[in-house]
Amino acid sequence: MEIVTPLQCDRRSQLYRWHQHTGASFEALAGSVVVTAYADAEFETRQARVLALADLSTLPRTGFKGIGTLDWLNDAGLQLPTSPNLARRQADGSLLARLSENELLVLDDLGASTALPTRLEAQWCLDSTTGVYFVPRYDSHCWFALTGEHAAATLAKVCGVDLRSHKFAEYSICQTSLAKVNAIILCINLAVTPCFFIFSDVSSTQYLWEAIMDAMAEFNGCCVGLEALRALQAG
Amino acid sequence: MKILNCPLNGPRNILEFSYGGEFHPMPDPSRCGSKEWAEYIYFAENQAGLVTEWWYHLASSYWFLAQRNTITDEIVRTFEVNEVFSERVEFSTQPEGDQNNG
């Protein structure tokens, strides 16, 4: 694994200074850097089973919308979620999240190994007759993962929607207000550990990070790096 | 807390929504005159009773319609715009002379 610093990359998380000040170690991934860990990776894996927050903002993602989007993605060989506000995992590990009847968010896996967002962006071209429009999501939104058994209880402090597992099943999507900012919340468990992916406007990145960290304090949650999430996903 | 039922996202705190004004059928912009178009854009009926209104869910950028009683402030029904619009409305990007000056 190549050790790098955020300043070596043009694309950085809005939180990179915070990560540096918190003692994070970084690794190169998909043309950018992600936090590998802040402390001992085994400790962070144990912590992520209880409650932890990770910044995934530099992982690849994209979006498309328009009346021809479902057919276009279907023709590309992808498995579509059956209804709005549902996500579906693809065979390669990437995710399609259907935000409305004709709008989808495309997420790479935690290793940024599928290259699906990049591939779809390369295939797309502006043609009003196809009814498929590109919705950039890489630089517009931050991407956090909130993991652990207390994740739903933490979100209950800052969100009005009931996100407990018996009310909000895996692959469900909720578009709502989170700590007073608009957010997309997606339930994607890491093996048996509850996990919520959170997307919000990039201008709210630092505020939302600090608001969730503050909410986690009641349950002794802390920030973790990507290594802990990969360990959880591997079971 | 007042709850509004979004057709896409379900029941949500009304603070997640923005009011978009009264719903009126849109005149054909390529055929109507300036007076009719200005009335469509700027005028409101402010009717007492059951009205249809535009509402917008901020977190999902989703427009929909709601029937609300303006006397009791009761929201009777919310529904998707495809109940009203069956096809996309195209707007010409080319100026079309002075036909809208009437």
Description:
The complex is a heterodimer of chains A (235) and B (102). With 235 residues, chain A is α+β, with helices and mostly antiparallel strands. Chain A has helices at residues 16-21, 41-50, 69-75, 116-123, 151-156, 205-216, 226-233, and strands at 3-4, 25-29, 32-37, 52-55, 61-65, 86-89, 95-100, 103-107, 133-134, 141-147, 173-178, 181-187, 195-201, 222-223. In chain A, β12 and β13 form a beta hairpin. The two termini of chain A are 21 Å apart. Chain B has one domain: 2-Layer Sandwich (Folate-binding fold), CATH 3.30.2270. Helix content of chain B is 9%, strand content 35%. In chain B, β4 (50-57) and β5 (62-69) form a beta hairpin.
Subunit arrangement of the protein: heterodimer
Beta-strand fraction estimate of chain B: 35-45%
CATH topology value of chain B: Folate-binding fold
User: In CATH's first tier, which class of chain B applies?
Assistant: Alpha Beta
How far apart are the termini of chain B? Answer: 48 Å
Q: What value does the average pLDDT of chain B take?
A: 89
Indicate the overall shape of chain A: globular
The run of helices and strands of chain A is: EHEEHEEHEEEHEEHEEEHEH
Of all chain pairs, the largest interface belongs to: A-B, 14 and 12 residues
In sequence order, what are the helices and strands of chain B, one letter per element?
A: EEEHEEE
- Mean of residue pLDDT values of chain A: 95
